[in-house]
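Quick one:
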Amino acid sequence: MTAVYGADGADEARARAWLATAVEEARAGLAEGGIPIGAALYGADGTLLGRGHNRRVQDGDPSLHAETAAFRAAGRQRSYRGTTMVTTLSPCWYCSGLVRQFGISRVVIGEARTFHGGHDWLAEHGVEIVLLDAAECVELMREFIGRSPGLWHEDIGEG
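Output:
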């Protein structure tokens, strides 16, 4: 584990197990011809509430990022306090806003080397950040960016 921001860092073994779900989603997205970013939303009790992957390419929907797909799959919750969003890549500003808007308590991030999104901002606003720096996530994104730089730049708003 590279960095933990926040007072009560998530258990690393649990965080890595949850990350495996997000990686499965990222690989599913890649197999569909999309961008390999996956996410999962876990409840305070560790229950998987929802999972999903970036579907911007597949659905032609620029708002369907991995975190929003997982959030939508979780359905309406009375409260998001105590929940954990797990994502293979540092969340962009759009997804960081979703975390703040709904009071998601923790974000577990697979990697932030290929893209450094809004996780520092989230930490500054009381969201616990667990940055795992998982080699598998870094490799997945670097390979994708190398093969599809135009699609990647479109995804991060630089296209």
